[in-house]
Amino acid sequence: MSQTSSSSGSVGFIGLLTIVFITLKLMGHIRWSWVWVLSPVWITASLIIVITFLACVVFALRLMSKN
Questions:
Q1: 7 belongs to a structural domain
Q2: pLDDT for 43
Q3: How many C-beta atoms surround the C-beta of residue 33 within 10 A?
Q4: Residue 1 located in a structural domain
Q5: 20/5 Cα distance (integer angstroms)
Q6: Which uninterrupted H or E stretch holds 54?
Q7: What confidence tens digit (pLDDT) does each residue in 1-56 have?
Q8: Which pLDDT score is estimated for 63?
Q9: Cα dihedral angle (11, 35, 46, 20), rounded to 10 degrees?
Q10: What is the 3-state secondary structure (H, E, C) of 2-52?
């Protein structure tokens, strides 16, 4: 018997956008600062942190209201 396994790794939209921005910056096609070139990464990370914080606050408020 032959076992075959395949794994498909893919780059999401944010990853692809970051790669495009870095490539354009290194090739000299855009003159943005590195903060803006890497903005898809830090904006996404910031949103995840804010959403997680809000979910924790809502969870804590629900626990407090049950007591």
A1: no
A2: 96
A3: 9
A4: no
A5: 31
A6: helix 39-66
A7: 557 666 667 889 999 999 999 999 999 999 999 999 999 999 999 999 999 999 99
A8: 93
A9: -20
A10: CCCCCCCCCCCHHHHHHHHHHHHHHHCCCCCCHHHHCHHHHHHHHHHHHHH
